[in-house]
């Protein structure tokens, strides 16, 4: 299975959500799956100041739709609320030509 994990937090192996995403992804790789992980710095353009960061991240994430479809992923995992616009865009595509979409919160699940 080919999996893409998108996260709204830095991939720090020693801290919270980043640690969880990395460990989960490695576990899937250990089982033989192909897993790509995209941290926010791979799609989010830093803006001056923190004002409006969440909405700006949502807009930048929405631009990933084409990249996701070209990647021919079987499953895309979203970690964080900033991916709502992207999930909405992808969910409107015919199920045959899009991956399974899974959204997680960055907290206790």
What are the SSEs and their pairings?
Blueprint: E1 2-7, H1 16-30, E2 34-38, H2 53-62, H3 65-70, E3 75-79, H4 84-91, E4 100-104
Parallel strand pairs: 1-2, 1-3, 3-4
Helix pairs in contact: 2-4
The biggest beta sheet is recorded as: 4 strands, parallel
Q: Runs with pLDDT <50, length 5+?
A: none
**Helix and strand composition category:** alpha/beta
**Helix-strand string:** EHEHHEHE
Question: Briefly, what is this?
Answer:
The protein is of the alpha/beta class and 109 residues long. The chain has helices spanning 16-30, 53-62, 65-70, 84-91, and strands spanning 2-7, 34-38, 75-79, 100-104.
Provide an overview of this structure:
This protein is α/β, with parallel strands linked by helices. It has a single domain (2-104), classed as Rossmann fold, CATH 3.40.50.11930. 36% of the residues lie in helices and 19% in strands. It contains four helices and four strands, in the order E-H-E-H-H-E-H-E. It has a four-stranded parallel sheet, with helices on both faces. The chain starts with a strand and ends in a 5-residue tail after the last strand. The model has no long low-confidence stretch (mean pLDDT 87).
What labels would you give this structure?
19% strand; Rossmann fold; alpha/beta; 4-stranded parallel beta sheet; single chain; 4 helices; 109 residues; 4 strands; 36% helix
């Amino acid at each position: 299975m080919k999996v893409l994990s998108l996260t709204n937090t830095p991939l720090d192996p020693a801290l919270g959500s980043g640690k969880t995403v990395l460990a989960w992804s490695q576990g899937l790789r250990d089982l033989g799956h192909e897993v790509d992980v995209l941290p926010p710095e791979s799609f989010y353009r830093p803006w001056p100041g923190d004002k409006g960061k969440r909405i700006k991240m949502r807009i930048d994430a929405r631009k990933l739709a084409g990249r996701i479809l070209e990647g021919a992923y079987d499953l895309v995992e979203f970690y964080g609320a900033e991916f709502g616009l992207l999930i909405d865009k992808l969910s409107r595509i015919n199920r045959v030509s899009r991956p399974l979409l899974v959204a997680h919160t960055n907290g206790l699940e």
